[in-house]
């Protein structure tokens, strides 16, 4: 039996969207880093004492992508990229969670984008745990990972035919997750 890291009390948790962020970063022209986030998402974590039975899941509303540039955001939502109209959600469901030390988890799971599902490995570091004055049990995670946008059929086909050369295939993920224990 693999036990939950000592820093996180076992239980069922819900992601607190007001204190969490789902972000990504991708290189443009190999020089500039374009960062974006999603405004609407949800998630849950089932963390029993036996970590082999733990489950993490989440969804992201693709239409809420925000890179700080309205034209770029419309392009990202378009049929050729995220395809938000046909595929409005990104989903994640864990397959296996292992503790690499007392405050770090490795989460293997299935990420679905544009109707394509691929396995991804995420690293989650526990950055804080607390019991609030009102009695809520909370914890925070810093989650990182990386994916290939090509694996999900996300290709840039710009007017000059050089879209994929302009934008890196490698997309870095960064999530700041604040979760509260369910009552």
Please write out the topology.
Layout: E1 11-15, E2 21-28, E3 32-38, E4 41-47, E5 55-61, E6 65-66, H1 70-77, E7 89-101, E8 104-113, E9 116-131, E10 137-148, H2 163-166, E11 167-181
Antiparallel strand pairs: 1-4, 1-11, 2-3, 2-11, 3-6, 4-5, 5-7, 7-8, 8-9, 9-10, 10-11
Helix content: under 10%
Overall structural class, as computed from helix and strand content, comes to mainly beta
Please give the domain count.
1
Low-confidence stretches: 159-163
What is the name of the CATH topology?
Answer: Lipocalin
The top-level CATH class is Mainly Beta
The proportion of strand residues reads: over 45%
Largest sheet: 8 strands, antiparallel, barrel
Helical segment count: 2
Task: Please tally the β strands and state the result.
Answer: 11
CATH architecture: Beta Barrel
What pattern of helices and strands is seen along the backbone?
A: EEEEEEHEEEEHE
Tell me the span between the first and last alpha carbons: 26 Å
Mean pLDDT: 90
- The gross shape turns out to be globular
What spatial order of strands do you see in the largest sheet?
Answer: 1-4-5-7-8-9-10-11
Rg, Cα atoms, Å: 17 Å
Would you kindly provide a written description of the structure presented here, covering whatever features stand out?
The chain has about 180 residues and is mostly beta strands. The chain has one domain: Lipid/polyisoprenoid-binding, YceI-like (Lipocalin), CATH 2.40.128.110. Helix content is about 5%, strand content about 55%. It has 2 helices and 11 strands. The protein has helices at about 70-75, 165, and strands spanning about 10-15, 20-30, 30-40, 40-45, 55-60, 65, 90-100, 105-115, 115-130, 135-150, 165-180. An 8-stranded antiparallel β-barrel has the order 1-4-5-7-8-9-10-11. A hairpin with a 7-residue loop joins strand 4 and strand 5. The longest helix has 8 residues, at about 70-75. The protein is globular. About 20% of the residues are buried.
